[in-house]
Amino acid sequence: MDGSYMKDLSTSACSGAFILHCTNTSKEIKGCFVDSSHQADNYRGEFLGALGPLLLLRAAFMANPQVEAASAKIRLYCDNKGVVAHGNKVDEVLKSEQVQADLIRLMKTYSRLIPVQLQWIHVHGHSDDTTPSHKLSLAQQLNVRCDALARKYLLRAIQQHIFIHPSFPDEDIILSIRTEKIRSSTRKAIYKNWGTQLARDLFDKRNKVPRDSFDLIYWEIIPKVMKEFPKTFQDWVTRHISDFNGCNRYLSRWKPTVKNVCPSCGIANEDTKHITRCKDTSRTALFMEGIEEIRSWL
């Protein structure tokens, strides 16, 4: 099995492909899941692929309960060590901050329900980059084929906007926030939703961002952008957005000797909003100079 994620084409889609291969008959069953979510990445794709054979094995044994297979052993190969580690520790409790917790929890559930011994084995991915195909082991060849399968169906799903339903069989409890399934840490998801609602109310109350326009802003990219700037600039942005920078409106609260007026145009109540709206000639010229720099950069 193998996963695929192409963030240049879509940051919300990932896929996982699998091939069940019988070493006695060489017959195969292959498939691929393509999921769409804000938690999409390569790691999620790997676990999507891992669920495929487990679902098929679960269905096969449910349809044939008379089969005695307690002594049988099935080997499952994956090029992701995280999948292998979780697959071989089905009774280990997940951490509260575990990413892709929904799929890992399902993987452990299916493994416990299947009445055979499952052994997860790590296989190096992309082995065909350095070794001719005919010299690869069977597990390596299957992994290479799964990689191609995952890429193929991920591209098709992105083009046609066709994705799987977020819920799986035997998934007894599903937590959602505003109709979107929680896929990773429940605590983080609840905290983020609470913070979003609080920020929407605050920005609307302070006339910074209208409530109806809040979701039009790409908030998810802001932390990544901020990391590109020095810490001092990050601090300044935080103070500016929260209305606690060095404007006279706030300095006058701490120092009685400071008057709450703009030192340039003399208007009362110099707050953060006034900085970019001051009608003073020199400030206006400085503002327009900044606008031109942004325009040139664009």
Strand-residue fraction?
A: 5-15%
Q: Compute the separation of the termini in Å.
A: 43 Å
What is the topology, as strand order, of the major beta sheet?
Answer: 1-2-3
Instruction: Please identify the structural class as seen in this structure.
Output: alpha+beta
Task: Describe the sheet with the most strands.
Answer: 3 strands, antiparallel
The total count of strands amounts to 7
What are the secondary-structure elements, in order, as H or E?
A: EEEHEHHEHEEHHHHHH
> Helix proportion of residues, in percent?
40-55%
Helix count, DSSP H or I runs of 4 or more residues: 10
Mean pLDDT: 90
Rg over CA atoms: 27 Å
Low-confidence spans? none
Q: Key features?
A:
298 residues; alpha+beta; 3-stranded antiparallel β-sheet; two-stranded parallel sheet; 10 helices; 7 strands; 43% helix
Give a brief outline of the structure.
This protein is an alpha+beta fold and 298 residues long. It has helices at residues 42-63, 81-87, 101-113, 138-160, 186-205, 222-226, 231-241, 248-254, 272-275, 281-297, and strands spanning 2-4, 13-21, 28-36, 73-78, 117-122, 176-177, 180-181. Helices cover 43% and strands 12% of the residues.
Describe this structure in words.
With 298 residues, the chain is an alpha+beta fold. It is built from ten helices and seven strands. The chain has a three-stranded antiparallel beta sheet with strand order 1-2-3. The chain has a two-stranded parallel sheet with strand order 4-5.
